[in-house]
Design a protein that fits this description.
This is Berberine/berberine-like domain-containing protein. There is one protein chain. The chain is an alpha+beta fold. The protein folds into 2 domains: about 45 residues, no CATH class; about 140 residues, Vanillyl-alcohol Oxidase, Chain A, domain 3 (3-Layer(aba) Sandwich). Helix content is about 30%, strand content about 10%. The chain has 6 helices and 3 strands. Strands 1-3-2 form a 3-stranded antiparallel sheet, with helices on one face. Helix 2 runs antiparallel to helix 4. The longest helix has 18 residues.
């Protein structure tokens, strides 16, 4: 949009008229949004919005975390950090993405049948911090930015001693115990990994070795 923006993307499974009724508080014209759009998205185009973040040559040393609750003070702090980093030339496309998802279906599976325990799957909020730029000289600033955001989320938006991190965007230094729900599960997955993928072929997205 050319300037710092808060974008709210609402989902509804059903007709457009019902969706607008269900989300009428968020779509209230008195909120004076820059734009409002309600469209039917075909199932095979649901992820088209991700394309903008998949630019060849971009650097995106992001982090991700599952949080239990929202904290207004925390998000004001994070907003300020995002504005500060985004002022760097070439970093204007950096984003912070937060999603809220129903976990009802995923919780039907037992812990033994899934990679992630109920401890992780029961959390409905997912946060992804994605600094985006091409200049390698910004690597240190980007790491500092994402680390500060992670610390704020860990301190103010989850229970003490219960960090839950999402594998695809955890950064390079998140302990595996925080990702898979404990040391026992980590050792189990490492054993499977060594047996089924000793060459780490499937490590391009998340390097579990």
């Amino acid at each position: 949009m050319g300037y710092p923006s808060l974008v709210v993307v609402l989902w509804f499974y059903g007709p457009k008229s019902q969706a607008e009724k269900a989300w009428e508080l968020m779509l209230d014209p008195s909120l004076d949004p820059d734009f409002k759009q309600a469209v039917i998205i075909p199932a095979d185009r649901l992820n088209d919005s991700d394309d903008v973040g998949c630019v060849m040559g971009s650097r995106r040393p992001g982090v991700g975390m599952r949080i239990k609750r929202l904290n207004t003070a925390a998000f004001y702090e994070i907003w300020d950090l995002w504005l500060e980093f985004g002022q760097n030339e070439g970093a204007e496309a950096s984003i912070i993405l937060m999603g809220r998802f129903s976990k009802k279906k995923s919780l039907e599976a037992s812990d033994d049948a899934t990679a992630f325990s109920h401890f992780h799957r029961g959390i409905v909020y997912e946060v992804r911090v994605a600094p985006t730029y091409t200049d390698e000289n910004l690597d240190r600033d980007a790491t500092d930015f994402t680390s500060k955001v992670r610390d704020i989320l860990a301190q103010k938006c989850r229970d003490l001693g219960k960090i839950r991190a999402y594998p695809a965007g955890t950064g390079f230094y998140e302990p595996l115990e925080n990702i898979f729900g404990g040391e026992v599960r980590v050792q189990k997955f490492l054993s499977i990994k060594r047996k089924c993928d000793p060459g780490n072929y499937w490590g391009i997205f998340f390097d579990l070795i």
